[in-house]
């Protein structure tokens, strides 16, 4: 595929289609404005976070599989953005190493630095007991939730280590499933435990370079993915509980989660948030029901 990059609005929304590496860098940017990459930016918490970053004056690179969804977010963000704020749309499969490297190269060409990676892309996967889960479904869930998170974190880390001044913040979107499983969610639960290990390892690796890494574990933020899992007050059947029953569960607005993500991103560089658990009030947690 060729790379097609063009401005589409006064706030500098840019689309980059991957990846053969041919691209024309945009105009120089004010490096006092911070730069963020958000994966899974086309919907849910990623979309809400991209919009909140925009409101607060960050340049934002929007990564995700669905270009049409990313474009829609960029259009909405353009209406919220202060003058001079830039949005870079980069359709990206986070499980593809080449696509990930290309996306971060575009960010470096556009802005010459990176201050935040919100590693948000993820998939719930099928609801199945361990004896029912296929290896194909297990591997697909692992590819997005673990390998994709690793590839993006590694690309961000290399960027943050090489830039001058060094440093930045990586924030991984975990889940309360990194702490307590849901019934019949063995693949998702296992991947989120793995993300916790990845987060803690990156936090140690980043210390010499001023790179912090933390994790936000959310429970029942209202998103399309959560609806697909059968959770929430609006669900016809409710969420599967540990006792085998199904009950609707409370949710909270994804924009509340987004505000927390950006609050963490805007902390001073010498402050690290290692792990933060945020759930809807009244959500089953210990024992999950």
Any overview of this molecule?
The chain has about 290 residues and is α/β, with parallel strands linked by helices. It has one domain: Rossmann fold (3-Layer(aba) Sandwich), CATH 3.40.50. It has seven helices and 13 strands. The strands form three sheets. Strands 1-2-5-4-3-6-7-8-13 form a nine-stranded mixed β-sheet, sandwiched between helices. Strands 9-12 form a two-stranded parallel ribbon. A two-stranded antiparallel ribbon has the order 10-11. The model is unreliable at about 1-10 and about 15-30 (pLDDT under 50).
Topology summary:
Elements: E1 6-7, E2 13-15, E3 35-39, H1 44-55, E4 59-64, H2 67-80, E5 87-91, H3 97-111, E6 116-119, H4 135-162, E7 168-173, H5 186-206, E8 211-219, E9 221-222, H6 224-228, E10 239-240, E11 246-247, E12 252-253, H7 254-265, E13 275-279
Parallel strand pairs: 2-5, 3-4, 3-6, 4-5, 6-7, 7-8, 8-13, 9-12
Antiparallel strand pairs: 1-2, 10-11
Helix pairs in contact: 1-2, 1-7, 3-4, 4-5
Task: For the structure shown, list the relevant keywords.
289 residues, alpha/beta, Rossmann fold, two-stranded parallel sheet, 7 helices, 18% strand, globular, disordered N terminus
User: What is the residue-averaged pLDDT?
Assistant: 84
In CATH, the homologous superfamily goes by the name NAD(P)-binding Rossmann-like Domain
- How would you spell out the order of helices and strands? EEEHEHEHEHEHEEHEEEHE
Major beta sheet, strand line-up: 1-2-5-4-3-6-7-8-13
Percent helix range? 25-40%
Whole-number total of structural domains: 1
Rg on CA atoms, Å: 19 Å
Low-pLDDT residue spans: 1-11, 17-31
InterPro entries: NAD(P)-bd_dom_sf, Sc_DH/Rdtase_CS, SDR_fam
Protein name: SDR family oxidoreductase
Pfam families: adh_short
Keywords: Oxidoreductase
């Amino acid at each position: 595929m060729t790379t097609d990059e063009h401005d589409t609005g006064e706030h500098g929304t840019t689309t980059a289609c991957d990846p053969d590496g041919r691209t024309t860098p945009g105009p120089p940017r004010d490096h006092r404005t911070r730069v963020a990459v958000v994966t899974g930016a086309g919907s849910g918490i990623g979309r809400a976070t991209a919009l909140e970053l925009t409101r607060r004056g960050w340049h934002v690179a929007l990564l995700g599989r669905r270009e049409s969804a990313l474009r829609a977010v960029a259009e909405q963000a353009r209406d919220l953005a202060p003058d001079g704020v830039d949005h870079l749309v980069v359709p990206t499969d986070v499980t593809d190493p080449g696509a990930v490297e290309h996306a971060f190269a575009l960010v470096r060409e556009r802005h010459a630095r990176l201050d935040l990676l919100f590693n948000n892309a993820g998939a719930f996967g099928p609801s199945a007991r361990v004896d029912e889960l296929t290896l194909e479904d297990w591997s697909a869930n692992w590819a997005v939730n673990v390998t994709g998170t690793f590839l993006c974190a590694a690309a961000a880390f290399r960027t943050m280590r090489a830039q001058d001044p060094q440093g930045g913040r990586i924030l991984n979107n975990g889940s309360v499933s990194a702490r307590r499983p849901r019934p019949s969610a063995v693949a998702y639960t296992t991947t989120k435990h793995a993300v916790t290990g990845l987060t803690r390892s990156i936090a140690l690796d980043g210390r010499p370079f001023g790179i912090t890494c933390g994790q936000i574990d959310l429970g029942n933020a209202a998103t399309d993915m959560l609806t697909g899992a059968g959770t929430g007050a609006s669900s016809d059947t409710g969420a599967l509980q540990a006792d085998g029953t199904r009950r609707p569960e409370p949710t909270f607005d994804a924009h509340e989660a987004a505000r927390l993500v950006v609050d963490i991103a805007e902390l001073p560089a010498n402050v690290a948030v290692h792990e933060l658990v945020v759930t809807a009030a009244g959500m089953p947690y210990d024992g999950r029901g």
